[in-house]
Design a protein that fits this description.
OB fold (Dihydrolipoamide Acetyltransferase, E2P); 9 strands
């Protein structure tokens, strides 16, 4: 893997948001949810498609704090435009485990 500079890293906006809406996304090629994530008053609510159906049901996601990249350009995924990338890690079985803050952090807070 190639190294990046501090300036490269600073270009990536990684922020905390709260999932405020979760819907099924039957048009996705792989099972996914359509999420609406609140990043606070400065950024607002952004949409995302997330392939996290293996470990999470809709009820468990509502109100969950997540860590997301908020400055990618929108990406068309089927009929929706994804506006942020909710982050996670693949476990040993290939399922996505969400990256989440382990204490309460205000929506929109940028990774330090």
């Amino acid at each position: 893997m190639s190294e990046i500079s501090w300036d490269d890293f600073q270009k990536v906006e990684i922020r905390v948001g709260t999932i405020v809406e979760v819907n099924d996304f039957p048009q996705a090629r792989k099972p996914a949810y359509l999420l609406r994530v609140d990043f606070g008053s400065e950024i607002g609510i952004k949409k995302s498609s997330a392939q996290i159906t293996d470990l999470y049901d809709k009820a468990s996601l509502l109100g969950k704090k997540v860590i997301a990249v908020t400055n990618f350009p929108p990406k068309q995924i089927g009929p929706m435009r994804s506006e942020c990338l909710v982050t996670g890690f693949h476990d040993a079985d290939g399922r996505v485990v969400l990256a989440v803050p382990d204490a309460d952090v205000e929506n929109g807070t940028r990774l330090a």
